[in-house]
Design a protein that fits this description.
alpha/beta; Rossmann fold; 2 domains; seven-stranded mixed β-sheet; 16% strand
């Protein structure tokens, strides 16, 4: 049996099988993730983080005495399967969902709003942060557009050539995740006087990117923004080196994971990755809790796992407040989350804050560069919270 599928089935059974005596006091949370599709290498650890956080919450009193039962569904990164999974979980009594991708999350946005079903996702699409269109959608940390703007600001702030302005190309995926940042990059680049000289598509699962990087080589961009996942970053940087494309690569939260350096080899040197959370829990207030609930010691150093953890801790905080108010429903959870109360996530990122008019939960990103085959923290960028950037 596929190892990823075994994880899905095993965790579903382990977290869902409860005694009939205790079932009345359970509260159900749905987990929809990709165990068998093109982004499973990052979705699986993220879902493990969600489920470890559920274990941690349950170990520490649950939702005011109620245990959380996780109902787990693999959707294979396919939007129709996400709809099927959602209907199943809603029918099973889930009061909230931990989802994953941009395409499925955005496709279900109106449905979950109608159903009053809080939906946390690993999609950080800016559209999901505007409660006018996505009142029941949440995520933890800076959105994709903010990540890209932070990367552009870092480029502009560190550009030393006084004779000209920098040039930029974009390599993105031809899906909701990839295309979500294009307007933000193009408009903010214009503000910073960074010229966008070209765009190319490389999709998840691609084994090479020779054609794309060869075309960009002729344009000679100083920088390339990668709106990509780590498994696709590897062939891009390897092939760029192969064809002699001399540039500096920047990318958002999914461009790095613990396997990237092994996949990409020396070609990854110099990559700048804009992250929304610490890459490791070591030395942070949350470390002991993560170690107590994680299945593997290495999870403490997997930022995909840790971001899943943060998303569930945030949802759990809202569930506890809703239950204390006597309204542990989707609507009650939303009211609690939107209260403006900072949610402490143990130092993995700054406290999260949501309001009824703004679900941008964070403005701080962490800039890492790969040096000597290791991610090195260069510093933080704190973006201003502009009204014209909400949802964009």
């Amino acid at each position: 049996m596929n190892g990823l599928l075994k994880f899905s089935l095993g965790m579903s059974m382990a977290l869902s099988v409860m005694s009939s005596e205790g079932r009345a006091q359970d509260v159900k949370v749905g987990v929809i993730y990709d165990a068998t599709g093109p982004v499973a290498t990052q979705s699986v650890p993220y879902a493990k983080g969600v489920q470890a956080a559920i274990r941690s919450i349950n170990l520490n009193g649950g939702i005011n005495g109620k245990k959380i039962t996780a109902l787990v569904e693999d959707y294979g990164y396919q939007i129709p399967r996400a709809f099927t999974a959602y209907k199943k979980l809603k029918g099973a009594g889930a009061v909230a969902i931990q989802g994953f991708g941009s395409g499925d999350t955005e496709a279900l946005m109106e449905t979950v709003a109608k159903d009053k079903m809080p939906w946390f996702s690993a999609s950080y699409a800016a559209s999901l942060a505007d409660p006018k269109g996505a009142p029941y959608n949440y995520f933890a940390g800076a959105d994709y557009s903010s990540q890209a703007r932070a990367g552009l600001k870092h480029i502009a702030d560190n550009w030393a050539d006084t004779t000209r302005r920098p040039t930029l190309a974009i390599i993105y995926t031809d899906n909701a995740f990839g295309k979500s940042v294009l307007p933000a990059i193009e408009s903010y680049a214009a503000e910073l006087k960074i010229k966008v000289v070209g765009k190319e598509v490389v999709n998840p699962g691609a084994l090479d990117a020779v054609s794309a990087v060869t075309r960009l080589k002729d344009l000679k961009p100083d920088y390339i923004w990668l709106q990509q996942i780590a498994s696709t970053v590897a062939p891009i940087v390897r092939d760029a080196k192969k064809v002699g494309l001399n540039t500096s690569f920047y990318g958002g939260v999914w461009t790095y994971d613990p396997n990237l350096i092994k996949l990409a080899g020396p070609a990854i040197e110099g990559l700048v990755s804009v992250q929304i959370a610490a890459l490791s829990a070591r030395g942070l207030p949350v470390e002991a809790a993560v170690r107590a609930a994680a299945e593997n010691p290495g999870d403490v150093d997997d930022h995909n796992f840790l971001r899943g953890w943060v998303a569930m801790i945030a949802l759990g905080d809202g569930m506890k407040a809703a239950d204390a108010a006597g309204n542990l429903t989707g609507e009650g959870i939303k009211t609690a989350l939107d209260s403006g109360k900072p949610i402490d996530v143990g130092g993995l990122m700054p406290p999260l804050v949501y309001s009824p008019t703004d679900h941008r939960s964070g403005d701080t990103v962490f800039i890492y560069r790969i040096a000597d085959q290791k991610p090195v923290l260069l510093g933080e960028v704190v973006l201003e919270r502009r009204a014209d950037w909400l949802g964009k």
